[in-house]
């Protein structure tokens, strides 16, 4: 083990000397690993391990006025959709001095505003928030924080600072167009507890079908209950009862789509011959279902990775003109909509 100073706790200077680089290089690598070569990064990381170097968050906070914390606000801790993104955020901050602090807004604007106030009181280095529909109070807090802020899962016209995600309007349009291309014409929509991103996909569905004079409000079945496979079955049952001539259904997520499939099977409705089904997010179960289910694939891990990349760039002093990153989506066609 290399020589240490003072109390025996390794310093950033010790790491630099051990690795044969300058302290500034070590600091740069820890703030943004992409800023140094892979060879140099490996050497510094080896020295950190051998010296058992632990950054002093209090010293860094005193020097910068900011804590080494990236706050992340998500709407739900139980929704599997956010797990991939949280994993990406964790992975991307592994070799940096930053810790991740997670808050659960429970899809509640007041709770989001409350958590933002708590987070900002700790002087975080940056914040990641889900969506582009923050309340006026939350927007004001974020704008006045003077730290990097990334809105994720959606892009819009006026990001607070930076955003990484997709156009849910475009995704909604793509779902309708796919079903029309496959020969479906009487298309329904099922959703549970709408969030703003689901609402935009629903509005795209309405607008597209109205333009074709084929929109029927009886085919839109919504509930305020939390999404689940069982709720998907209930919604599909209601749709069949209200509009039995429906020949396809767009589901707000994959849970609803799987439930819709189960209800069709229970009622002897053949998929896709009599009913087309499409979901959103493309979870693993969509491919495993029989028949397999068409879905919109979103790259949730990539969204988390890019959000952290943007933050690290900003914290490293690299300004960029690219305020928004469109991660796009992919329609994965499977048996449930394959008529042609």
TrEMBL record:
<dbReference type="InterPro" id="IPR028082">
    <property type="entry name" value="Peripla_BP_I"/>
</dbReference>
<dbReference type="Pfam" id="PF00356">
    <property type="entry name" value="LacI"/>
</dbReference>
<feature type="domain" description="HTH lacI-type">
    <location>
        <begin position="10"/>
        <end position="64"/>
    </location>
</feature>
<dbReference type="InterPro" id="IPR010982">
    <property type="entry name" value="Lambda_DNA-bd_dom_sf"/>
</dbReference>
<keyword id="KW-0805">Transcription regulation</keyword>
<keyword id="KW-0804">Transcription</keyword>
<dbReference type="InterPro" id="IPR000843">
    <property type="entry name" value="HTH_LacI"/>
</dbReference>
<dbReference type="InterPro" id="IPR046335">
    <property type="entry name" value="LacI/GalR-like_sensor"/>
</dbReference>
<protein>
    <submittedName>
        <fullName>Transcriptional regulator</fullName>
    </submittedName>
</protein>
<dbReference type="GO" id="GO:0003700">
    <property type="term" value="F:DNA-binding transcription factor activity"/>
</dbReference>
<dbReference type="GO" id="GO:0000976">
    <property type="term" value="F:transcription cis-regulatory region binding"/>
</dbReference>
<dbReference type="Pfam" id="PF13377">
    <property type="entry name" value="Peripla_BP_3"/>
</dbReference>
<keyword id="KW-0238">DNA-binding</keyword>
